[in-house]
Amino acid sequence: MVLLALLVYEIFYFDYVNESDVYFVL
Q1: For residue 23, with 0-12 CB atoms within 10 Å meaning exposed, 13-18 middle and 19 or more buried, which class applies?
Q2: Please, which domain of life does this record's source organism belong to (predicted)?
């Protein structure tokens, strides 16, 4: 549960900072 929440948080955070980073995270 916690790890999933952190993963989603990181995805949205990187998406806000730079869209190109999202592909790197995924």
Answers
A1: exposed
A2: Eukaryota
